[in-house]
Automatic annotation (TrEMBL):
One annotated GO biological process: protein import into peroxisome membrane
Alphabetical keyword list: Membrane, Peroxisome, Transmembrane, Transmembrane helix
Family assignment from sequence similarity: Belongs to the peroxin-3 family.
Subcellular localization: Peroxisome membrane
Ranges of compositional bias, category Polar residues: 374-389
Region (Disordered): 369-389
Membrane topology: Single-pass membrane protein
Pfam families linked: Peroxin-3
PANTHER family reported in the protein's UniProt record: PEROXISOMAL BIOGENESIS FACTOR 3
Leader sequence segment: none
GO CC, any one term: peroxisomal membrane
Protein name per Swiss-Prot or TrEMBL: Peroxin-3
Length: 443
């Protein structure tokens, strides 16, 4: 028996060795494959977790942008309302009428802009006609300028905040991905941890301080720019002229095109240096006008930081040269984005969304409260029994502006559920810009 077994083993020894080797190799190979599959699954889980974390952080940053915008809105609109005080002009017109002994007018601007009021005011004696005409002209220009200045200043603020916060948040996105890939902690722990380097929080705070320039300097420069464009388009349009909303919208669109062309033009920083009170200009450089509205001259940056931060912060900031270096890097990246054609396109889109949100409401109010003021429309209605064509309805420009002014106030309402501001902050192009900033890890 045993001899038979020994003979069999001796006779098939090579086969047994090969079989044993194959089985061993197969077993080891299966263990290796199982290990690699497990590693791949873990890596895939980490990548999915990283994507989910970054997506969550990105979405939160966009929400933070909107909340930050709303918090800055009162500071943005206050100088605009002060500079373009339509209500003061309205009060002067009201006082002028009272001094003449004419019937008093309503505090509602729509009441003082009806056709009979305009015609009566323009039929006064020659001694006072010029003053009256100037007041009405001033009312027209300021109403339109305030309307478009609010829209464009808010568009610029939206762009600025999105760029700033996404540039800063990008660092935490990258840290989140790296730490999640290398750490043994749970995902929840990683989300709860602060990933922003404390050493970089100082220059980042300084970087965010530059919003002050638009709120205090840039918006007033924008008022001047838009007023010039308004005068170019509306100067020859009388308050007594009857316009349909399509005609009025066309004039507004012409003004927008003029504004957009001006924002693309280059200008020297010299005037901004003079306004900032600097005795010597470090350098006179030519830059896009949109950049001069959003960022201060290089020689004014320290003064701006002094105006917007505490002495303790400034002392800490100046302790290390790396703070100034990082701030310069952040501002250079921001400047490069602001010079891009893509940003100009987004500003135009934001302004268009704002205008297109207001004008239909103006038309709806005109139709519901005032009907059609066009004499041609009245004659047409007498000769036909068909429904009146809304598109042919016309109103005097004075009445249109009287209805536009209260609707313009919606642009300055810092409510979270403000539909106009929410729509402007959620255009797809803005998300694409934010995503491109976040994904630019090479800077």
């Amino acid at each position: 028996m045993f001899q038979y077994i020994r003979n069999t083993i001796r006779r098939h020894s090579k086969k047994l060795l090969w079989t044993t080797g194959i089985i061993s190799i197969s077993y080891l190979l299966s263990l290796y494959i199982q290990k690699k599959v497990k590693e791949f699954q873990e890596q895939l889980q980490q990548e999915n977790a990283t994507r989910a974390l970054i997506k969550k952080r990105f979405a939160q940053t966009q929400k933070d942008c909107y909340m930050t915008f709303l918090s800055f809105l009162p500071a943005l609109v206050e100088p605009i309302y002060t500079c373009l005080n339509v209500e003061q002009v309205t009060g002067e017109l009201k006082l002028s009428r009272r001094n003449k002994g004419t019937p008093s007018i309503s505090d509602d601007m729509s009441s003082i802009t009806k056709s009979d009021v305009v015609e009566n005011d323009l039929n006064i004696d020659s001694a006072n006609k010029k003053t009256k005409a100037e007041l009405w002209q001033d009312l027209k220009i300021k109403s339109l300028t305030r309307f478009l200045t609010l829209i464009y200043s808010e568009s610029l603020l939206i762009i600025l905040i999105h760029l700033q916060l996404n540039i800063i948040s990008r660092k935490s996105y990258l840290n989140a991905a790296l730490k999640l890939a290398t750490s043994q902690k749970t995902i929840k722990d990683e989300i709860d941890n602060s990933l922003i380097d404390n050493d970089e929080s100082i220059p980042e705070q300084a970087f965010l301080s530059f919003t002050w320039w638009l709120l205090n300097k840039g918006n007033l420069k924008l008022v001047q720019l838009i007023e010039i464009c308004i005068r170019e388009v509306f100067n020859e349009v009388s308050l007594r002229d009857e316009l349909g909303m399509m005609e009025f919208g066309s004039l507004v669109n012409q003004t927008q095109m003029a504004i957009e062309n001006n924002l693309k033009k280059d200008e020297f920083y010299a005037e901004l240096y003079e306004e900032s009170g600097l005795d010597e200009h470090p350098k006179i450089e030519k830059i896009p006008k949109i950049l001069s509205l959003l960022l201060p001259p290089e020689g004014y940056q320290l003064t701006l930081l002094q105006n917007t931060n505490s002495l303790e912060f400034l002392t800490t900031f100046q302790l290390q040269q790396s703070n100034a270096d990082l701030l310069l890097k952040l501002n250079n990246e921001l400047s490069n984005y602001l010079k891009s054609e893509n940003v100009h396109m987004i500003v135009n889109k934001l302004a268009t969304v704002g205008v297109s949100s207001i004008l239909p409401k103006v038309e709806q109010t005109l139709m519901s409260k005032h009907g059609t003021k066009s004499s041609d429309m009245a004659r047409t209605s007498e000769t036909t029994e068909s429904q009146p064509n809304i598109a042919s309805s016309k109103w005097k420009l004075a009445l249109i502006l009287g209805v536009l002014t209260p609707h313009t106030q919606e642009l300055s309402s810092a409510r979270m559920d403000n539909p106009i501001l929410y729509a402007m902050n959620n255009i797809s192009e803005l998300d694409s810009l934010s995503a491109s900033v976040y994904s630019n890890f090479d800077v």
